[in-house]
Amino acid sequence: MSTTKTVGIVGARGHTGAELIRLIARHPHLKLVFVSSRELDGQKVSDHIEGFAGELCYESLSHEQVGAKGADAVILALPNGKAAELVAAIDAQAPDTIVIDLSADFRFDERWYYGLPELTRRKYAGQKRISNPGCYATAMQLAIAPLRDRLAGPPQCFGVSGYSGAGTTPSDKNNTDLLRDNLMPYALTDHMHEREVSRQLGVPVEFMPHVAPHFRGITMTVNLWLQHAAKVEDIRALYRERYAHEPLVHVLDEAPWVSRIAGKHGVEIGGFTLAPGGKRLVVVATLDNLLKGAATQAMQNLNLAFGFDELASIPQETKA
Question: What's this model's pTM, rounded to 2 decimal places?
Answer without folding.
Answer: 0.96
